[in-house]
Design goal:
The chain has 174 residues and is of the alpha/beta class. The protein has seven helices and seven strands. It has one domain: 3-Layer(aba) Sandwich (Rossmann fold), CATH 3.40.50.2020.
Length: 174
């Protein structure tokens, strides 16, 4: 089932899943990972993602985390999506390719923007490697709010020739 916005302008990905709603203790855990530096939380968050979404994943997919900008990753000391993606890929027995998708320009933090501004903020911000050609790419992020970031990542991966693109998030804002 698609929302009205997705029916009017379908995303570039073929399918998407989220493990749970972004609320309560899960919201607190994701916030503690992302902004509190609690890297150890990536493991149980990835485990939740695998437990809730793993059965529906294709066996030939390659996991690609949503990249952070260099400055943001340097300041934070890590990319939370990469930590989650790495653990999930290992549990699922899938390949992990951090270099298949790059952020090619700095963007404002999506969390600071209104929904209408988010797509414009990330438009053209990502470039995919030609190595995605013909592959089933599974993009992984921590939280999906409007879907703008994952949709733009999917556009870049599809434009580089990926055969199929799926998106996964630990949590979805509803």
């Amino acid at each position: 089932m698609l929302c009205g916005a997705c029916e009017a302008r379908p995303p570039a990905y073929d399918w998407g899943r989220a493990a749970a709603r972004y609320e309560g203790p899960l919201r607190e855990a994701l916030h503690a990972l992302k902004f509190g530096g609690r890297r150890a939380l990536a493991r149980p968050l990835a485990d939740l993602l695998v437990e809730q979404c793993g059965a529906a994943l294709p066996a030939d997919a390659v996991v690609v985390p949503v990249p952070l900008g260099r400055d943001r990753e340097r300041a934070r000391g890590f990319n939370q999506a990469a930590l989650i993606a790495g653990r999930a890929a290992k549990r699922l027995g899938l390949g992990l390719e951090r270099r298949w998708l790059a952020r090619v320009r700095a963007t404002s933090p999506q969390s600071e923007l209104a929904a209408a501004e988010r797509s414009a903020n990330v438009r053209g911000a990502f470039r995919a490697s030609p190595e995605v050609r013909g592959r089933h790419v599974l993009l992984v992020d921590d939280v999906m709010t409007t879907g703008a970031t994952l949709a733009e990542c999917a556009r870049a991966v599809a434009a580089a020739g990926a055969a199929r693109v799926g998106v996964l998030a630990v949590a979805r804002v509803l």
